[in-house]
Design a protein that fits this description.
The protein is α+β, with helices and mostly antiparallel strands and 359 residues long. It has 13 helices and twelve strands. It is 23% helix and 13% strand.
Length: 359
């Protein structure tokens, strides 16, 4: 279903969905502190077969990510053009199940010996030495000194408009909520076949080996529904706990909200790997970095983060997005107004989080 805004922009919603909740993450603000990861972990995945799960993770790019090499495991859909169809996407593509080693096993540390038994050993994982885990290649990046580079990429479930995880499930256990498009797993219907895990090209569906069920990010919908002790609507914990406040949360079809403006009006918030054709509803403002330096320390007019690499991640629209942001930065430097820069730098929580727009 397509909705046309007053400015002529078209927003596509999944069939049967009233509104689509969405998030924009500004990668220029992420400091890789993992506070979002810890906030999510404490709230949803501390135990009970979820020890290895990180519904929210922050990985270093360039890097192999979590799970290892997730971008190469397939899933999603073929393009409509590739499939010779007139629909928004082609046939579903079967992906690869990540192995336990790809996710990384949960590590037990010698906290007890150090904090209670007086041991002078250093803190370290117990058992066999680990060979891989989340953030294994943190801060490594790419490039050569003095022009090496990296940036952080926070990831949650994208709550896609066309979720291939849901299409992969023969029991229709995964579904989009009618009121807001959040993708959930019906735990009563799930039989643990894991077709959803291999079907998600972003590897954001997990398998609980104790419950024999699939589980995933729920966009903290109880917080959105004010189910906390103070009865207040709150954004997802990963967003609200973020020290640099890099996330904006709202609805893609809210024309007065930050998501619509950044995605549809200014075109500076982009989907990660749009070639998977699931139409994610988590968007990213691509990262800038200082220009390159010569060996003598002279600044040269060459991008430190290669544009082709950013195009691999965010598609060809990344060039226009970066150019648009740079134009608005120049506008502010000249003392002119810029709604775009106001949006990207706002500290007004009511403007940053608009989850009550349709109530």
């Amino acid at each position: 279903m397509s909705l046309q805004g007053e400015d002529g922009a078209t927003v596509e919603l999944a069939d049967g969905i009233e509104h689509q909740v969405a998030m924009v993450m500004d990668l220029n603000k992420c400091i890789g502190c993992q506070t979002c990861t810890v906030a999510c972990k404490k709230l949803w995945t501390e135990g009970g077969g979820r020890e290895y799960m990180y519904w929210n993770n922050v990985e270093t790019k360039p890097g192999r990510g979590y799970p290892r090499d997730w971008e190469e495991k397939g899933g999603g859909f073929a393009s409509a053009e590739q499939a010779g169809q007139e629909d928004v996407h082609g046939e579903r593509e079967v992906g690869e199940l990540p192995s336990e080693e790809d996710w990384g096993r949960p590590w037990e540390f010698n906290h007890g010996e150090i904090f209670y038994d007086g041991s002078d050993e250093s803190l370290r994982p117990q058992g066999e030495p680990p060979e891989w885990g989340p953030n294994w290649d943190e801060d490594q990046g790419a490039g050569e000194y003095p022009n090496s580079y990296y940036f952080y990429l926070p990831r949650i479930c994208n709550h896609c408009t066309h979720p291939s995880c849901a299409e992969a499930c023969p029991r229709k256990a995964l579904y989009k909520r009618e009121e807001d498009g959040i993708v959930l797993v019906d735990q009563e219907r799930c039989r643990g076949y894991r077709y959803c895990v291999e079907g998600c090209p972003y590897n954001k569906v997990h398998f609980n080996v104790l419950k024999k069920k699939s589980e995933k990010c729920i966009f903290c919908y109880p917080r959105k529904e004010a189910e906390g002790p103070d009865d207040e609507v709150r954004p997802p914990a990963c967003a609200s706990e973020c020290p640099p406040q890099l996330r904006l949360v709202g609805f893609l079809d809210d024309e007065d909200g930050p998501i619509y403006k950044l995605v549809e009006e200014y075109g500076v918030a982009l989907r990660l790997h749009p070639e998977f054709h699931t139409q994610p509803n988590v968007y990213y403002v691509p990262p800038f970095a200082p220009p390159q330096h010569t060996e003598d320390g002279e600044t040269v007019d060459v991008d430190r983060i290669p544009r082709p690499y950013l195009e691999e991640l965010f598609g060809e629209d990344v060039h226009d997005a970066l150019d648009t942001i740079e134009r608005h930065r120049d506008r502010v430097r000249r003392g002119e107004d810029s709604e775009l820069m106001d949006l990207l730098t706002t500290q007004d929580l009511a403007r940053q989080y608009r989850l009550e727009a349709f109530e």
